[in-house]
Amino acid sequence: MGGSWIVKLPSARFAGVPENEYSMMELARRVGIDVPSIHLIDVKEIENLPAGIGEMQGQAFAIKRFDRLKDGNPVHIEDFAQVFDVYPKDKYNKASAANIAHVIGAESDEKDISEFIRRLVFNTLIGNADMHLKNWSLIYPDKRNATLSPAYDFVSTIPYLKEDKVALNFSRTKRFDEFTFDELKHLAAKALIPEKVVLDTAIETVALFHEHWQKEKTNLPLYSNVIEAIDKHINKVPISSKT
Ligand SMILES: Nc1ncnc2c1ncn2[C@@H]1O[C@H](COP(=O)(O)OP(=O)(O)O)[C@@H](O)[C@H]1O
Ligand SMILES: [Mg+2]
């Protein structure tokens, strides 16, 4: 109830998910993505957890809410399942990244188009197979004009579930190994957004990702299975090698 932070508790199924999310979000920040303040906190320090969630230990992931003002008043946000009038159960199959990009291009500006492509490329490189419609949102800071909300829910999911596909079609395909510059050109055409902005942003993001991943992978609080999975995964993503 209320409050200005969201806390995500450790998973009962997989070890180190909060550390994974914290690390991916910090890496995203270094790549230039708009990431809210975040922390890892010991679950033992969290008061008033609901009864019945069982014995918990380790770290939890905390993220500052972007849909609250300093005085606690709400700021309107709308996720892309809401934008497309899609029920949550259809969050993987009723729209594509190209459809999201089309809305951003029509409603917002070039800065947001770049930010969308930056996030799309970043999540593909880290092996996040769960960027469905509810993990993308618009925010209305002036209550009228839509912009892309800050980032949330960036997790490298491939260490846990060996998916070869992302959550939403890029444009024609969901396959990590078909995420090519040609697919991005197709996305730009379908979304009616400038191809040059899309390709330039993608190339820049790939370069920044490699630079910061090499520097930070052993400094971030990552489990070794995540580092190994990402190192293996990036070789399978076509745009990763052409910089
Ligand atoms: N920093 C934030 N500020 C405001 N709303 C957020 C923030 N982070 C997440 N949310 C909202 O909470 C929902 C659940 O958070 P998310 O990180 O996606 O968790 P999950 O892993 O359970 O999907 C999101 O779909 C979004 O609507
Ligand atoms: Mg989510």
SS-derived structural category: alpha+beta
Count up the helices: 7
The CATH class label is Mainly Alpha
Strands, total number:
6
Q: Which value, in Å, is the CA radius of gyration?
A: 18 Å
CATH second-level architecture: Orthogonal Bundle
Strand content: 5-15%
Major sheet strand order:
1-3-2
Note the gap between the termini.
Answer: 46 Å
Number of domains: 1
Query: Percent of residues in helical segments?
Result: 25-40%
The ordered H/E elements are: EHEEEHHHEEHHH
Q: What are the distinct ligands in this entry?
A: adenosine-5'-diphosphate, magnesium ion
Q: Could you name the ranges where pLDDT drops below 50 across 5 or more consecutive residues?
A: none
Shape: globular
CATH-derived topology: Phosphatidylinositol 3-kinase Catalytic Subunit, Chain A, Domain 5
Main sheet?
Answer: 3 strands, antiparallel
What is the residue-averaged pLDDT? 96
Characterize the structure shown.
There is one protein chain. The protein is of the alpha+beta class and 243 residues long. The protein has one domain (5-240): Phosphatidylinositol 3-kinase Catalytic Subunit, Chain A, Domain 5, CATH 1.10.1070. Helix content is 37%, strand content 9%. It contains 7 helices and 6 strands. Strand 5 (137-139) and strand 6 form a beta hairpin. The chain is globular, with a radius of gyration of 18 Å. 37% of the residues are buried. The site of magnesium ion has 3 residues, from loops.
